[in-house]
Amino acid sequence: MNKLAIDGGTPVFQPGELVKLIPVWPPAYPETDRKLIDIHHSGLWGLCGKYEQLLQKEFAEFQDAKYAVWMCNGTTTLECALRALGVGPGDEVIVPGITWIATAAAALYVGATPVIVDIDPETLCIDPAKVEAAITPRTRAVIPVHLYSALADMDRINTIAKKHGLHVIEDCAHAHGAKQHGKGAGSLGDYGSFSFQLSKLMTAGEGGCLTTNDERFADLVFRISHIGNSKLFPEEPLQVGLECHQYRFTEFQAAIIYDQLRHQPENRAKRQAAVKIITDRIADIPLVQLQKSSYDDDLRDYYFLAFLLQEEHLKPGVDRAWIFDALKAEGISIGTGWGHPLYKSVAWNVPQDRYVKHDTEVCENVMYRRLMASLHAFLMADPQVIARWAEGFRKVLLAATK
Ligand SMILES: Cc1ncc(COP(=O)(O)O)c(C=O)c1O
User: Fold this and answer.
1) Fewer CB within 10 Å of terminal CB in the chain, N or C?
2) Do residues 328 and 251 both lie within one domain?
């Protein structure tokens, strides 16, 4: 085996080399340039222009839903969904312990109490058994997150929700284009919330979309996010006292997403091919396991490429921190995603009496000991670059294995 770079050997990538080999994310498509210039000169920069209207139909279809309501980001979509459901003070909303703060903050924004529960150790998505155990007479909704593009177990979550009369809002911020049993994310539960923030697999810098099959709900969410205006039933009066906001999307964002939608399948295929190169190369090494999706037939993508350390295979004296350092010396950057479970994130500046946290042993174990994750952009590099990455990963993993 080649000598490790951390021990003075030749690194797989020279310092700063890999970054230069990764295409810029997000990609700039020539056809989008033309659209943006046309919009710029048209004066029609917002207020549900041509591309937003097209996306209301096409993105909904892409996720197998009937309606898609566009907003300024994927936090407001969650908040508006809860508001439209009448969730508020005294109500509880169940969320997973590993997610971005928005999933739980949305409950706080409507005055409800987020209830944080543990995750499944293999999919890293909310554990359905823990959802059921956390239900109280105050529980109104559950927000499963398709974490890092692995899909939550929607069969079990929907069964539990039905039994207890709960609403299911899928947080699909990482799951554009994903499917479970052939059906699109965002139409598996009752409602789907998508983010188009800069790091996401589809992005307009910022942006959000709420998907649903329920016409009345789509209209209500539209009203709540568009200062009371209705798209589907404009002749009907606004419900007195309905708290509405100005959370609109722009036509520039819509044009960018319109083109990305057309490129999404090819981009996903490229990421899937890259993951196959990597997982094939380390298939004989039991030290790490790829984050699983809930079902074998899940059509998934990779917002983060996430591996879980199988600590029983670690060489004595070696831990995850050593692996990170050894990879860094090889010119490969890998980390722990957000670094902390939701409730320990610096951005979670919430007093303890405003939320409930159940036992989150798996979240802690995953975040602080086992997770090794890398954001998706590098997966768009050429296969030769990915093969070198895989070689470096293999080299370090073999050295860390007992
Ligand atoms: C799981 C999850 N939910 C919701 C959001 C919120 O999306 P936005 O940043 O568009 O408000 C994000 C964004 O990072 C996220 O990762």
Assistant:
1) N
2) no
Alpha carbon nearest to ligand 1 atom 8, residue: 74
| pLDDT of the residue at 316 | 95
Residue 173 Cβ contacting ligand 1 at under 6 Å: yes
Binned average pLDDT, 10 residues per bin, the chain of 402 residues: 90 95 96 97 93 98 98 98 97 98 97 98 98 98 98 98 98 98 97 97 98 96 95 89 95 98 97 98 97 97 97 95 97 91 94 97 97 97 97 97 95
Q: 327 C-alpha to center of ligand 1: Å?
A: 28
Q: At what angle do helices 215-225 and 76-84 cross, to 10 degrees?
A: 120
Atom of ligand 1 nearest to the CA of 303: 16
One domain, residues 16 and 117: no
Inter-residue contact 399 to 326 (CB < 8 Å): yes
Distance (Å) from CA 245 to ligand 1 centroid? 19
Cα of 75 from ligand 1 centre, angstroms: 6
